[in-house]
């Protein structure tokens, strides 16, 4: 069961990668991890580095995919981004933390909900 979940998540990240490439982003890295957690996708567009949390679900039975991004997850994501920025010496003015929710219901075209600047700051 765990392997199926990881495989489904990997397919979601593959879909997310294709989504961002089709929207003019360049993929910088995938699944970057540090002691604070993992950043699913790191992309660049117009000089801005986007750190993207990807959430994929097969149905809305437990709500929309973006609803599973908890405050705890956001805190770990922010710390992971801070670590990446520190390690790479990025300029904070070029950083954006986003989310991409994908609803991939069997037999249907996937639905994408891109949330740019999830912290609204």
Description of the structure:
- With 121 residues, this protein is α+β, with helices and mostly antiparallel strands.
- It has a single domain, classed as Trna Endonuclease, Chain: A, domain 1 (3-Layer(aba) Sandwich), CATH 3.40.1350.10.
- 32% of the residues lie in helices and 35% in strands.
- It has 2 helices and 5 strands, in the order αβββαββ.
- The protein has helices spanning 2-22, 71-88, and strands spanning 26-34, 37-45, 48-57, 95-103, 111-115.
- A 5-stranded mixed beta sheet has the order 1-2-3-4-5, with helices on both faces.
- Strand 2 and strand 3 (48-57) form a beta hairpin.
- The model has no long low-confidence stretch (mean pLDDT 92).
Described by strand count, sense and barrel closure, the largest sheet is:
5 strands, mixed
Could you tell me the strand content as a percent range?
Answer: 25-35%
State the total count of DSSP E strands: 5
Number of helices: 2
Strand adjacency order, main sheet = 1-2-3-4-5
Mean pLDDT over the residues: 92
Number of domains: 1
CATH architectural arrangement: 3-Layer(aba) Sandwich
Low-confidence stretches: none
Please describe the structure with a list of short key phrases separated by commas or semicolons.
121 residues; alpha+beta; Trna Endonuclease, Chain: A, domain 1; five-stranded mixed beta sheet; 2 helices; 5 strands; 32% helix
Summarize the structure.
This protein is 32% helix and 35% strand.
